[in-house]
Amino acid sequence: MSKQSKEKTVQELEAPVVNLKVNPAAVDTEPYVKRPMGREYPKARSRMPEKQLFEFAEYKAKDAERIGYSNYSYWKSVWANFLKKKSAVFMSIVFIALFLFTFVASLIGKYDISMAPDPIGKAYIPPNGEFWFGTNAIGQDYWAQVWYATRASILLAVLVSIGQIALGVLIGLVWGYVRKLDRFFTELYNLIDNIPTIIYMTLIALMVGKSLLTMGIAMVGFGWLATARNVRNLVFMYRDREYNLASRCLGTKLHRVLFRNIFPYLVSVIILRLALAIPGTIAYETTLTYLGLMDIMMPSLGNLLASARAVFPRAGYTLLFPAVIVSIITITFYLVGNAFSDACDPRNHV
Questions:
Q1: Helix, strand, or coil here: 40?
Q2: What domains does the chain contain, in order, with CATH numbers?
Q3: Where are the beta strands (DSSP E) in the chain?
Q4: pLDDT tens track of the chain, all 350 residues?
Q5: pTM for the model
């Protein structure tokens, strides 16, 4: 290629790009006409000047960016994938109906939760038309007792589980990202995990107290271990990826790197942990109450199961109804948690 040809090519490449659009006024309503010989050709366009055919198009940065715009929404995709799991959707409806019914049951019941019509003559009456779930040891309506206990246990389990997961995620993020703290959190994890949690709970119950607040805080304090360990291992996988290295080079603060770059990849794991923690907390509260390590003045599923153990051969219904509700809650959260966790995984999105 000659020097002149190269200079001409460079000038053409460096020339400003002119955005042009067709002038609507130059568009013919009858684009073709018949020539005498029967051939068609564009009506006079070949003879029209360029200024009449085209006009400058206005450049807008926002419109230019929308060329590659996608209507993809993460949470819309999550919801769409979750709705594909019919069993999980059905169990979600069952749990919501169960929780809402705990408020309705007190309105349609015949007796109040604390009402004992006749402690002597009404004790351990089997289910009948008057007492739908029978009565307990002091003649109280077991229908009101069971549904009030269900509502109390669900609320307690949700609060404790949220506390456990939030603390576990926070510690796991710092544990996995800050290398200097890895040894400290590893030793703390080994110290707590190598001793059965029931021993800690027993010491706290004997030394501090058996109140609901005390034992709830204790369950949060010892329940974060599994979540923190899981999150820590996942953070190790994402910590040194290119976008995180670039963020550190740009001077991005630690909390922004953790919650903007890494945390979105942990959503599916966190949801699964939360879904499994709620029935696990109910079972743990039942165990603590059964062992006499938690004093709950209000009825709970743990209280009902603990009091039913001594009278099971005589009044089996006192164990049947709470056990069925605990089973429904456990199965519901297991199916819904797994389905929602899979839906939150971006690899399952189309």
A1: strand
A2: 3-68 (no CATH), 76-348 (1.10.3720.10)
A3: 20-22, 32-34, 40-42, 54-56
A4: 555 555 555 455 444 444 444 445 544 444 444 445 444 445 556 666 666 666 666 767 666 666 655 676 777 888 888 888 888 899 889 989 988 998 888 788 777 776 655 555 677 788 888 888 888 877 788 888 888 888 888 888 888 989 999 999 899 888 888 888 888 998 988 888 888 888 888 888 888 888 878 888 888 888 888 889 988 888 888 887 888 788 878 888 877 887 777 877 788 788 888 888 888 888 888 788 777 787 766 778 878 887 787 787 778 888 888 888 888 888 888 888 888 888 877 777 76
A5: 0.68
